[in-house]
Amino acid sequence: MFPEYDVIVVGAGHAGCEAAAAAANMGSRVLLVTMNMGTIAQMSCNPAMGGVAKGQIVREIDALGGYSGLVSDRSMIQFRMLNKSKGPAMWSPRTQNDRQRFSEEWRHLLEQTPNVDFWQEMIPALLIKNNRVQGVKTALGLEIHSKSVILTNGTFLNGIIHIGEKNFGGGRAAERAAHGITEQLVSLGFESGRMKTGTPPRVDGRTLNYNNMEEQPGDDSPGKFSYMDTNPPSTQKSCWITYTNPKVHEKLREGFEQSPMFQGRIKGLGPRYCPSVEDKINRFAERDRHQIFVEPEGWNTVEIYVNGFSTSLPENIQYEALRLVPGFENVKMFRPGYAIEYDYFPPTQLKTSLETQLIDNLYFAGQINGTTGYEEAAAQGLMAGINAHLKINGREPFILKRSEAYIGVLIDDLVNKGTQEPYRMFTSRAEYRVLLRQDNADLRLTPRSYQIGLASQERYDRTQEKSNQTHSLVDLLKKTRVEPNEANEALATLGSAALREKVAAAHILRRPEMNIRQVATMHPDLQNAILQLKPDILEQAENLIKYETYLDREKKLAEKIEGLEEHRIPTNFNYDKIPALSSEAREKLKRIKPETIGQMSRISGVSPADVSVLTIYLGR
Question: How far apart are the C-alpha atoms of 235 and 77, rounded to whole Å?
């Protein structure tokens, strides 16, 4: 009934969809298996993509040839560039999306991708022989063979949904949990754990009083995620902001005795930086209000997502507390919020390619690795799909360094440090964030993706053209010298110090208060040049000049540290024969099995002395 596939992807969430698309676009024959074809790439939580650090990840996925940026652009109802008051390293694109259209666009793209087949069924077991995965077994008992398998099970592995004192099996509202895979993997020697996440109530937007809230419109000149031809929205929908208050907190506290979190019925840890509303008022009792974002679910629906009000308290407490929030006095609920507890596998059991250490050609991606967020999941799925294809074709794995991408930081953190709580990406996790800006993801990653056969020729040509035009403009700004009489009047208007002598235009542009368009007015050659260039070229050139010193410093630091990445540690190296290693380091190294000295140096519990000992032992 089935051919042998190159790659089987289990789960069609954000990770699974990116994995299937990447492997198929590189030439693998892919089967995407999901329990429900109607919920492919469903936005299980908030209907939005991007945000701080997460927006950089979506740009990186797009630059590599993934689909998340394209889908986000085609389904957006609002665009905002966050952190514009800070430096460019902190700028983060975010879209509010039409939930239904997002899923439809993903399914459409996958159905238009050659080499992708679909199958709707639960997968309770893997086919494994001699420590190598050989396919999957379905709930109907069908055996489907493949050269590799990628597990992207999300919150479905033994998922339990909690609302007050009620709990029932489920991987998502109105969808059943998945059973069997955890038990099989544990029997093979894998370590598993439990994590928890949650979601807020959904409400009827027709029953809200927006006059009692603060409007949050999109940007006047909206941007987009993809570097390809997608169009920013011609119109946008506003979001709104309101706040809880002491009366809301008092009402929520009435439900604490029935809280599954406070009464110990939930064992898994939840996301530290996205706590439930009851956790907020318990942990931050000194605060008398918390922000609530009122987010529309799409163009053609009245459903509203109450961001900031995630909860697993009894539904009557949720409802009564919501009615005390300004603007929600007459609210009607569509469904209550809930918490969900599910299995995950500590990611220290993976190689940096996301292949498991115990079973060859078996890959994990997404929440199964202990992460939270659509963007983090999609990034892992993309990398797992790429590496599964490369492995079965006898090619080296595709590994992104910490200095190359937020995706590199994400995977390096997971594999080397692990996580005991849902991992979320922040700009602060990236030590080279001046290099890893949202505006240059294509310049950083598209050439690398093109080399391995994922990024298209069109995408590569666009990137090369952008690079050439950017560097030509930078060169022009550095060699064009501006006379004081050409610049001082404009500088005075802008409150900037006058020139005393002829200087390069780039020198003026480095002033914090100046931008490239203002500097261009000071010389006709510059004015003529920028008229022919797109805004992204101008932005890129301006950033390269303004932050040249910082960029050079980070590049040198990265080169120095990454020298350790060239020093490989032999597979199955025996750490017991080096008595000078600390006992903690020996235990961590035997469990995580780092592939390089650089990777070893980033493992928690491994000291610089341990690194030196092993480096000397290996003759480096």
Answer: 8
Please give the pLDDT value at position 326: 98
How many domains does the chain fold into?
4
Rounded to two decimals, the pTM is 0.93
Among 429, 452, 475, give the residue marking a domain's end.
Answer: 452
Domain span holding position 281: 202-337
Q: Using 50, 70 and 90 to split pLDDT, how confident is the model at 560?
A: confident
What are the distances in angstroms from CA 606 to CA 124, 423, 590, 598, 617? 38, 21, 12, 11, 16
- Please give the average per-residue pLDDT across 183-210, as a whole number: 97
Residue 561 lies in a domain: no
**What's the one-letter identity of residue 12?**
A
Structure-token pair, residue 179: 């059973």
Identify whether 109 is part of a domain: yes
Residues 6+ apart with CB under 8 A from 267: 194, 341
Q: Do residues 593 and 522 share a domain?
A: no
pLDDT digits (tens, 9 = 90+) for 352-397: 999 999 999 999 999 999 999 999 999 999 999 999 999 999 999 9
> CA 348 to CA 356: how far, in whole Å?
9
Residue 45 lies in a domain: yes
Whether the Cβ atoms of residue 446 and residue 63 lie closer than 8 Å to each other:
yes
Residue 611 inside a domain? The answer is: yes
Candidates 110, 12, 6; CA nearest to 67 is 110
Q: Where does a domain end: 422, 452, 482?
A: 452
Do residue 167 and residue 21 come from a single domain? yes
Which residues neighbour 570 within 8 Å (Cβ) at sequence distance 6 or greater?
none
Residue ranges in 323-437 assigned as alpha helix (H): 374-392, 406-417
Question: Tokens 């489907």, residue?
Answer: 144
Q: Is 142 found in the same domain as 42?
A: yes
Nearest to 204 by CA among 292, 296, 293, 276: 296
Counting every residue, how long is the chain?
620
pLDDT in tens, 420-447: 899 999 998 998 999 999 999 999 999 9
Cα separation, 384 vs 386, whole angstroms: 5
DSSP string of 456-523?
Answer: -HHHHHHHHHHHHHHHHHHHHHHH-EE-HHHHHHHHHHTT-PPPSS-EEHHHHHTSTT--HHHHHTT-
Same structural domain, 499 and 526: yes
In terms of Cα–Cα distance, which of 64, 77, 143 is closest to 383?
Answer: 64
Residue 620 has pLDDT above 70, yes or no: no
Determine how β-strand 239-243 pairs with β-strand 160-163: unpaired
pLDDT at 611: 84
